[in-house]
Write a structure and sequence with these properties.
219 residues; 2 domains; three-stranded antiparallel beta sheet; binds zinc ion
Length: 219
C-alpha cells in the first residue's frame, strides 16, 4: 500500500532519473478530485506544469502510480505537441517505464489496446506493452506482479472511466484533450475542475460546471 506516498517526491525522483527535458521546469503534482485518473496542464512555453492525480489512485501499489506518473510526464516531455496518447505511452516505455505502465494498465482496466479517434490514436493495453518489453523488463514486470499479487486479465466489467485529460494553455486559447477529442475552454475559466459525466455511452465534458461538449464512446 502506498498510503504515505509523497507524490511531489515521486515526481521529483522520476524527473531526475528519466526526464532531463523537465528538470528546469516548475512541475506541480497534487492529489485532487477528478473524473479520470489524472489531469495534466501545461502552457505553450512549458514553463509550468501541473498534474492533478485522482485521490483514489493512492490505493494502488506504488508501481502502478509510477506508471501513471510516467505517462503524464511524457505528455509535455516528448517532442512535438504531446497530445497523442500512443506517442505518450511510447515515450514512457522508451524511458524505461514499460513494466510500470503495464501495471498501471492492469489497474486502469486496459488489457487490450484502447482505440480512440477511430483507431488513429490509442492507449496501449497491458498485452501490447508487455510484448514491447525487453527480456529484462519482462522479468521485472513479472516480479512486480507477483509482489503486488496482481493477475493481469481482461476486466470482467469494462472500466469506462476516462484515462486522463490534457489541458494546454496557448496564446490563442486553452484547449482540453480527452480521448482524442478537443474542446476549447472559455477564457474566463481559469483553473477549472474538469468533470466527466457518462450517460448511455456519451461522455459530457464540463469545466467548472459549464458544458464544453460531449463525445461518444468508441467501441
Ligand atoms: Zn494521456
Amino acid at each position: 500500500m502506498s498510503g504515505k506516498l509523497d507524490i511531489s517526491e515521486l515526481v521529483k525522483i522520476l524527473i531526475s532519473i528519466a526526464y532531463p527535458e523537465l528538470q528546469r521546469l516548475e512541475v506541480l503534482p497534487y492529489w485532487g478530485r477528478t473524473s479520470c485518473f489524472a489531469q495534466i496542464r501545461w502552457d505553450d512555453a512549458k514553463n509550468q506544469i501541473s498534474i492533478r492525480f485522482n485521490k483514489n489512485v493512492k490505493k494502488w501499489h506504488e508501481a502502478g502510480i509510477i506508471g501513471l506518473v510516467s505517462h503524464e510526464l511524457s505528455h509535455p516531455a516528448q517532442k512535438g505537441a504531446g497530445l497523442s496518447e500512443l506517442e505518450t505511452d511510447r515515450d514512457a516505455i522508451s524511458r524505461g517505464f514499460g513494466p510500470y505502465l503495464a501495471i498501471e494498465r492492469v489497474y486502469t482496466g486496459k488489457f487490450e489496446d484502447h482505440l480512440i479517434r477511430r483507431g488513429k490514436d490509442r492507449y496501449l493495453g497491458y498485452r501490447s506493452i508487455r510484448a514491447q518489453l525487453t527480456q529484462l523488463e519482462r522479468q521485472q514486470l513479472d516480479m512486480l506482479l507477483s509482489q503486488i499479487g496482481l493477475i493481469p486479465a481482461k476486466p470482467s466489467r469494462p472500466i469506462t472511466m476516462s484515462h486522463d485529460v490534457a489541458i494546454v494553455d496557448r496564446k490563442t486559447g486553452t484547449t482540453l484533450m480527452i480521448e482524442g477529442h478537443k474542446f476549447l475552454i472559455p477564457e474566463n475559466i481559469r483553473n477549472p475542475d474538469i468533470k466527466l459525466l457518462e450517460r448511455d455511452c456519451v461522455t459530457y465534458v464540463y469545466a467548472d460546471n459549464i458544458l464544453l461538449g460531449e463525445f461518444r464512446e468508441e467501441i
